[in-house]
């Protein structure tokens, strides 16, 4: 006898999955996001499972945030995507600039 209350397959993404999908430099979808550390209309700082990701652009807006699945959608004109490892000296400069 089948148990109808147990899902046959898991539909949620695992937190270890990470992808970045950019459409026409206007719509950005990122999976594997652990936390949104800070954001404004020119820069987002996201902690992902692959390290910190900085998104820079113009008129950036948080379109969707799904904390459970770790999915973030951003709209606006995207200029730059950069990964920064916590151990890098460069990270100290970025963090001090963000939290002045």
From TrEMBL:
Give the Gene3D superfamilies listed for this entry: 2.60.40.2000
Task: Mention any Pfam family matching this sequence.
Answer: YabP
State the NCBIfam families in the record.
spore_yabP
Q: What is this protein identified as?
A: Sporulation protein YabP
Organism name: Virgibacillus xinjiangensis
- Gene expressing this chain: yabP
């Amino acid at each position: 006898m089948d148990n109808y209350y147990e899902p046959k397959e898991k539909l949620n993404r695992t937190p270890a999955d990470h992808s970045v999908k950019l459409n026409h430099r206007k719509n950005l979808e990122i999976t594997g996001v652990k936390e949104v550390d800070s954001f404004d209309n020119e820069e987002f700082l996201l902690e992902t499972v692959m390290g910190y990701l900085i998104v820079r652009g113009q008129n950036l807006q948080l379109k969707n945030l799904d904390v459970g699945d770790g999915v973030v959608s951003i709209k606006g004109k995207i200029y730059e995507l950069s990964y920064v490892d916590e151990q890098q000296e460069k990270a100290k400069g970025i963090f001090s600039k963000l939290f002045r």
